[in-house]
Design goal:
With 340 residues, the chain is of the alpha/beta class. Helices cover 24% and strands 25% of the residues. The strands form two sheets. It has an eight-stranded mixed beta sheet, with helices on both faces. A six-stranded antiparallel beta sheet has the order 3-2-1-6-5-4.
């Protein structure tokens, strides 16, 4: 139970926070509580009034040192069970207050639940041979869950540093170090950004760095880490397709103020990223890998040209063996049997 500070006012939603089949709890102002169960959004019979919601929010964020009021009407917080809470209050929330709680499965979700066996084998090979991977997808597509599943192929003797806005990853790795960004507040506490954490992680002797999601100028630092001895690193980004993910990475690097020319950014991306794995949520609520693409580094490609991705797998099967060179020197080669 993540809401250890909750009193009786929170008992109305407590059953939803204990139910392992529920992944989201949503409160849209006074009225019914909504949930996402097994990928399907549905209303419940639980009705909350505004005063109860406000008390619920206060009891959740106060022990975490966060505040929420009219002058600071939005807050993100991680509850004690790892669930992520977002709350918005008036005047920003027109019909508020609003609460969204994203819960994470206690049961580790295996890679086999996202893709057919041939694709799973290919992705396990890519992780084990230290390819740099980016997971793309829309909001709620399951990027973080897939990142957890991919990380299960990392060897136990590797030191992994994870960096997130709100700590969600639970890798199950013996030698994992977790870092979490911190926002500034009205009491003068300074923010600690993802970019600062990525730069600090480089001093922590990581074998791999996993950035939960790149959203801004920290993308450049992540790419540089991938290119300078931290092979096998992983990250995610919001995108509608693998090609869109590359465009977003270019744009996010340019958030740095344009100090790096676009041609140089494209060379960094081409050199750093080996595969882009796209995940999507289907109408029935299931999350599946819909495309696996690899970076092509053809000699005919002109310097500064847009990075070129080639698809090697779709939702049904592996289309062809990966041609990307593994970054581990003693890595086995892809096996033709994977195509059977």
């Amino acid at each position: 139970m993540g809401w250890k500070t909750a009193g009786s006012d929170n008992e109305a939603i407590a059953p939803y926070l204990r139910d392992p089949s529920i992944t989201e709890v949503m409160i849209n102002g006074a009225g019914p509580v909504w949930i996402e169960r097994n990928g399907q959004i549905q209303p419940t019979n639980t009705i909350l009034d505004t005063a109860t919601i406000e008390l619920l929010i206060e009891r959740a964020v106060a022990p975490l040192g966060r505040r929420i009021d009219r002058s600071s009407p939005m807050v993100d917080a991680r509850l004690t069970d790892g669930s992520r809470l977002n709350a918005v209050v008036p005047p920003v929330a027109v019909d508020g207050p609003y609460v969204t709680i994203r819960r994470f499965s206690i049961r580790p979700i295996a890679l086999e639940e996202f893709a057919p066996p041939s694709v799973v084998t290919t992705l396990r090979w890519a992780v084990a041979t230290r390819c740099n991977l980016v997971v793309s997808g829309g909001a709620g597509a399951g990027k973080t869950t897939l990142l957890n599943a991919l990380a299960s192929s990392i060897a136990d003797d590797e030191r992994v540093v994870t960096i997130e806005d709100a700590a969600e990853l639970n890798l199950g790795i013996n030698h994992a170090v977790r870092l979490e960004a911190r926002p500034s507040d009205n009491d003068g506490v300074l923010a600690v950004t993802i970019r600062q954490l990525v730069r600090n992680a480089l001093r922590m002797r990581p074998d791999r760095i996993i950035v939960g999601e790149v959203r801004g100028a920290e993308t450049l630092d992540m790419l540089q880490a991938m290119n300078t001895g931290h092979e096998g690193s992983l990250s995610t980004c919001h995108a509608n397709s693998p090609e869109d993910a590359i465009s977003r990475l270019e744009t996010m690097v340019l958030f740095d103020g344009g100090t790096v020319p676009l041609a140089a950014v494209r060379e960094q991306i081409t050199a750093a990223i080996d595969m882009v794995i796209h995940i999507a949520r289907r109408p029935g609520g299931g999350r599946y890998i819909t495309s696996v693409t690899e970076m092509r580094r053809d000699k005919s490609r002109q310097s500064g040209a847009r990075p070129h991705l080639a698809q090697i797998a779709n939702e049904q099967r592996l289309l062809r063996l990966p041609e990307v060179a593994p970054r581990s020197p003693d890595a086995p080669k892809p096996d033709l049997q994977w195509l059977n």
